[in-house]
Design brief:
Strand content: 15-25%
Low-confidence stretches: 296-314, 861-869
Number of helices: 29
Number of strands: 34
Largest sheet: 7 strands, mixed
Structural class: alpha+beta
Shape: globular
Mean pLDDT: 88
RNA sequence: GCCCGGAUGGCGGAAUUGGUAGACGCGCUGGUCUCAAACACCAGUAUGGUUAAACAUGUGCCGGUUCGACCCCGGCUCCGGGUACCA
């Protein structure tokens, strides 16, 4: 009987499904372990071999943990809201729900064939009402909470209202939009609408007019991480900056906690670095510069002691800037405002008004892409107005330029051309003065950006080093009351509205122009039907097309929908208790499962999903839903699997194709050829002719009667015809082979090219495993003889190696260890039950179907003659997992390489516990030692126990 | 530009972190079985050298530390990923 993987795999997949083998239930007797995969967006193209890589790894680990006695939660679901299904709906009119359902069915089928140990009853789909109910619910919580700096946590809005009623907002410390101070009396005197407007400044989910990334082609707003190089991540369409009224999440309130939290979790350093950079914390100082009074064109600033500060009082507010280098303030020779800055209009002199207006208009119309591709283009305009350096009362011209961004700091800077390259280029271009204030460096050609050195030309900080100077200036600034030390983050609040159809509707209605949350009992707010998936003629989002899109009382509902990351931000919590109809997750479930212990997924989510999810979780932690502050304790990024493309070479202007090694003799054009009609780089000419009509009459120049194709490693993509479909491979080799081969390909975290040729090796290995358990005529047979010492040693070495490798996610070396073990065992035809029974169990996380089959035959006793598949008696469980016993692998001798001056000359077997001094004696006493010493006396003998002995001559 | 990674045979990759570099697999070469093929099995396979060995050279490049370096330190080159007027 041969290794019939088709029968075996179908049988066990059916068995697992029917017996709900992997159903996870709360069990306080066992420690829990939660293994999570990043759930897929089910695209129309189906899976390629790259997708299951992480799933296979997590499945191996889940199965392994179960065998080690853990109660493992290992669920799978689908991130179902997304643009492709909606774009398809716009083109074809097919409801995105139908497309999505079809795609999910295909994904389920493909994943099902790989033998994953998912708890299928916990499957969640983000577009289903019983799931998005809780996405909407969480949004309401965000809307009804604010961030209290004193508590360093989210607090209910109702509490804030109580405080306002009692004492106004003077003492409230919140992460919020800037709000004027008011007393309790003033608060009470405000109208309902005015009060709501103020509360909006505090809410964690809030509505505000912000400059957003607008993609006209997609007809929607995008988050920062959805814009790549000024183009939309999906589709690659141009993105503009446009002010719009949008929902936003106050992610920035959690910036410090998101940063601190990284210290407590087991993620790779590179991923943590990515998040740190994205959060972009910088320590600096805010300083107010007074605006010089308008004294008319051509006038000069008086050099004597200035009387400007505060003299002109309420006329013009001071100009607030942010800098990380307050030490360089004496080198500041001009100021720069962003074109959107609110002071632009106030301070511009009549003479400069035209020029400034023109510039601001030009800057506004500049697309994001232009800005990014023309970074080196230096533009700007003088306002005609001056600021006063508070430290030396120098008059400094104020310019406007779009290299200063509105969204960061205060949207205004003090430019120090000597020590900042952008300011330097600007100063050179517009011929502005440059004053060096840090010693060293040559500023004749470029800025000197050193963060270390001695201050010069800087009044009271002269002679200090940069670090002390920064402290001194911040201190002085605070004493003078003109500024303060300040921490800035690059992380912005996330825009949360999408002008699309296929997303979660907001549980929000409008009354008197102000938004209010729906009552929780009215959830879920179902996504309505629309006749078309496009925006309305008036430019409103598609939901505005829905009939009766109002509350029962007739108040209009919000027409935008939530973005893709809404549904994926807390799905891991829902898996703990997926059918709960009274809450996102029940108390008992979250108390038991706590948090995700292992999360496996791609790096592409480093600054998107993984930031939002952490934010979302921290909020849910604050309001007592999540049990831990961080959602994912350990995270592994699986590498990408690249494609291996094949090429044919067409002689230019003909329909003749020349084989790879002869191509240099002709003028040729390489063409991608579908990898399914190429085997081991040899083209199947008949299939090629049928592949495309153009090639039906193709002629070939062959080498050795074959057409050899060229190859290259590229991204796996339809257009390169290099997509490897896992179904084909499962069909040909079986799921166990595919699983082991994907692991064998290389380290999990590394990107590597797919190479189908190597899969044969793993397939041979499994066939060999199968044969070990069968006699020559193919009948199942194990000997009940006592195992040999040697066999036990192989087994226990393998147990130790597999456990070790599995624990550190080194699955590629684990597969190698299996192969070595099988080579050793089959070398002396070891078919002892005592060895092979445990071996099957050991193999089961990696190749679960064949392992179950073999193990069941072991336990089921003799397989009746002629019967292919005896009825399964059960699955491998933790009780049967073999224990590693050191006594079998203990060595009592070690064979030392004996080196002379670092060169190994002979080997010497010595007892393992021999003390160093004895080893030294034995080596010197050995006959060969004299030969290699050649009459010299040894200078030194270095003994490294269980490693090497080196004699220095 | 800045921040991370990485570079080892014809190929994918090992080397339990300073101790016999190239495990394991692919590919290739030769052999056994077969009428033949497929499957399977056996042997070989870093480079130079030799009938074979001895020996010499070898982990991107240059240098250093060490009895000993793929591994640690300094200086480069190339490749991959992230990020970018963030003051």
């Amino acid at each position: 009987m041969d290794y019939n993987f088709k029968e075996i795999e179908a049988k066990w997949q059916k068995y697992w499904k029917e017996h709900k083998t992997f159903k996870a239930e709360i069990d306080h007797e066992k420690p829990k372990y939660y293994v999570l995969d990043m759930f897929p967006y089910p695209s129309g193209a189906g899976l390629h071999v790259g997708h299951p890589l992480g799933y296979i790894a997590s499945d191996i680990y889940s199965r392994y943990k179960r065998l080690k006695g853990f109660n493992v939660l290992h669920p799978m679901g689908y991130d179902a809201y997304g643009l492709p299904a909606e774009q398809y709906a716009i083109q074809t009119g097919q409801h995105p729900a139908i497309t999505t359902e079809k795609n999910i069915a295909r994904y389920r089928e493909q994943l099902g064939k790989l033998g994953f140990s998912f708890d299928l009853e916990r499957e969640i789909i983000t577009s289903e009402p019983n799931y998005y109910h809780w996405t909407q619910w969480t949004f309401i919580q965000l809307f009804e909470h604010w961030y209290c700096i004193r508590a360093n946590a989210a607090r209910p809005i109702s509490l804030l209202i109580d405080i306002f009623n009692e004492q106004g907002n003077r003492k409230v410390k919140a992460e919020c939009t800037e709000t004027p101070i008011f007393t309790a009396e003033e608060w009470k005197a405000k109208s309902e609408k005015e009060q709501q407007e103020i509360l909006m400044n505090y809410r964690l989910a809030y509505l505000s007019v912000t400059t957003v990334n607008w993609c006209p082609k997609l007809g929607t707003v995008l988050a920062n991480d959805e814009v790549v190089n000024g183009l939309s991540e999906r589709g690659g369409y141009p993105v503009e900056r446009k002010p719009m009224l949008q929902w936003a999440l106050r992610v920035s309130a959690y910036a410090e906690r998101l940063l601190q939290g990284l210290e407590t979790i087991d993620w790779t350093d590179s991923l943590k670095d990515m998040q740190r950079n994205w959060i972009g914390k910088s320590l600096g100082c805010e300083i107010n510069f007074d605006i010089a009074p308008a004294v008319g064109a051509g006038s000069t600033c008086p050099n004597e002691q200035s009387t400007y500060p505060n003299e002109q009082g309420g006329q013009t507010p001071p100009l607030q800037i942010f800098t990380t280098r307050p030490d360089t303030i004496f080198g500041s020779t001009f100021m720069v405002l962003c074109p959107e800055h609110e002071l632009v209009e106030t301070i511009t002199t009549p003479e400069q008004k035209q020029a400034v207006d023109d510039y601001v208009k030009w800057a506004k119309n500049r697309s994001e892409r232009e800005r990014q591709t023309e970074v080196n283009k230096i533009t700007g305009v003088f306002t005609g107005c001056y600021a006063i350096n508070p430290f030396n009362n120098q008059k400094i011209p104020i310019w406007i330029a779009d290299y200063v961004l509105a969204g960061y700091g205060t949207g205004a800077i003090m430019a120090v051309p000597a020590h900042d390259s952008r300011d330097y280029k600007f100063a050179k271009h517009f011929n502005l003065p440059i004053i060096q204030v840090v010693e060293g460096g040559d500023i004749s050609e470029e800025a000197f950006e050193a963060k270390d050195g001695t201050m010069i030309n800087s009044d009271f900080i002269n002679g200090m080093n940069v670090k002390n100077a920064i402290d001194a200036v911040v201190k002085k600034t605070e004493e003078l009351g003109i500024g303060k030390g300040k921490i800035n983050y690059r992380l912005r609040d996330a825009t949360f509205s999408r002008q699309r159809y296929w997303g979660e509707p907001f549980p929000i209605y409008y009354k008197d122009g102000m938004p209010y949350a729906l009552d929780e009992k009215d959830l879920p707010l179902l996504l309505p039907e629309v006749n078309k998936y496009l925006p309305t003629e008036t430019g409103e989002p598609p939901l505005a097309r829905a009939k009766n899109w109002t509350t029962k009382d007739g108040y209009p509902l919000e027409t935008s929908t939530m973005p893709g990351f809404a549904g994926s931000s807390a799905y891991y919590l829902r898996y703990m208790d997926p059918h709960n109809s009274t809450g996102l997750v029940g108390q008992e479930a979250v108390d038991y499962w706590q948090t995700v212990d292992l999360y496996i997924g791609g790096t592409e989510h480093a600054t998107g999903h993984l930031i939002y999810s952490r934010f979302w979780n921290k909020f849910l932690f604050d309001i007592g839903i999540a049990k831990t502050d961080e959602p994912f304790q350990k995270l592994i990024n699986q590498g990408m699997i690249q494609g291996r493309s094949n090429f044919v070479y067409r002689i230019v202007g003909t329909n003749k194709f020349v084989s790879y090694n002869l191509r240099t003799n002709y003028e040729i054009q390489p063409l991608h050829v579908d990898i399914s009609i190429v085997e081991n780089d040899i083209l199947d000419i008949e299939k090629f002719k049928q592949w495309m009509p153009d090639f039906a009459n193709a002629e070939f120049i062959l080498e050795d009667g074959k057409y050899v194709c060229g190859h290259e490693v590229e991204k796996m993509s339809k257009s390169f015809h290099n997509v490897q479909n896992p179904d084909d491979l499962v069909e040909k080799y079986g799921a166990d082979t595919l699983r082991m081969y994907e692991m064998f390909l290389g380290p999990l975290e590394q990107s590597k090219p797919w190479d189908t040729q190597g899969i044969e090796g793993v397939f041979r290995f499994l066939k060999k495993v199968w044969r070990m358990y069968h006699q020559n005529d193919g009948e199942f047979f194990l000997s009940d003889e006592e195992p040999t010492e040697r066999g036990l040693k192989v087994l226990h070495k393998t147990i130790r190696k597999i456990e070790d490798d599995t624990e550190r996610f080194s699955f590629n070396t684990a597969v190698s260890a299996f192969m070595i073990a099988v080579n050793d065992l089959s070398d002396w035809k070891c078919n002892k039950r005592a060895i092979l029974e445990p071996f099957a169990i050991l193999l089961s996380p990696y190749a679960p179907h064949i392992a179950e089959e073999l193990w069941n035959k072991c336990r089921g006793g003799v397989c009746p003659p002629g019967q292919v598949n005896p009825a399964p008696t059960g699955t491998i469980s933790m009780e049967q997992y073999p224990k590693f016993e050191e006594k079998y692998v203990l060595e009592n001798t070690f064979t030392y390489p004996i080196s002379f001056n670092g060169k190994t000359r002979f080997m010497l077997e010595l007892p393992i516990d021999m003390p160093n001094s004895e080893i030294e004696k034995s080596v010197l006493a050995h006959a060969d030692t004299q030969k290699w010493l050649a009459g010299n006396a040894p200078k030194k003998v270095i003994v490294v126990p269980k490693k090497i002995v080196n004699v220095v001559v």
